[in-house]
Amino acid sequence: MISPHGMTIIVKKICQFIAPTIFLFGIYISVYGHLSPGGGFAGGVIMASAFILQILSDGSLLEKLKSERWRLELSESLSIFSFLILAVLGLLLAGTAVFFGNFLPPGKLGQLISGGFIPIGNLIIGIEVCASMTLIFVALIIFKDEESE
Amino acid sequence: MEIYLVIMLVLMILGSINSLHAKDLMSAVISLGIVGFGLVISFLLLYAPDLAIVQVVIEIITLTTTIAVIVSATYELEKKKIGYSSGFYAGTILIFTVIILMVVSRFTNILSYFGQHVMRMADIYIKSAPESGSANLVTGIVLHFRAYDTLGEATVLVTAVIGVLTILRHSGKKKDN
User: Fold this and answer.
1) Which residues of A touch B140 (CB under 8 A)?
2) CA of A146: which chain B residue's CA is closest?
3) Buried b (16+ CB within 10 A) or exposed e, A84-109
4) Does the ipTM exceed 0.90?
């Protein structure tokens, strides 16, 4: 069980340095998913690991986590909804009229802004996976603490 | 070929509607089985025998498990005396067996021979990968050719989270005295 006040100040400080770097790396993996190995799923898990590290080191203050829960649920639901909207936009706007049709211009191969909606889809999936993983972790802590009260 | 697919899809939609409005839990599960086995035949019609094999195994396992759970938990077989003769059941089983054998013998000759792997999809992926505009071939396939599959994976994740929250929740549960 995680202690409510967290670990010692050494662990806390080191995690404060490391967690933003991990988060940035997750965003990089998601956004550059169409150029280098990686993608939305891998990047989302890396982003979630930054949050989980921060929660583990800073301790599970129950009130703080409870106030974060609805925000995680909202971002998870909104991201999967916007992925669906992306699919329907492809159905409406692309010339071929298929589900998930690529309606944006493909651009030049190898540049950051290329591949139509593929980077947008990677980013949306990254947010969704990150919110889901963090929400499962937060839910395990919250309900365990509520049980013991 | 198209008309068989349309018939199967209409059957699946009717089965799912019937399972929503069924009065009995058992008949709801059985009409949900129509959807699963209709999906098997649809996969066969769409030239995807690997998916059909997986779907048939999954469907048999889940349907049998669910029916076993319902029978042992809620369903009282003794109270339900259904008034058909045994000849009616035998005739129904015979008719459906003949239909299934006809469908299978008609549609298995369009598949490739056993043991010979057809690389049709892989060739299309490799040839038309630059069309997606993605330098990474894997992401190009995952989010361009198979984006529908990716939507399914993301939905599985959302469903898993909903399941965790539902099972672990503390408020709204019945408390034991």
Assistant:
1) 34, 115, 118
2) B170
3) eebbebbeeebeeeeebbbbbeeeee
4) no
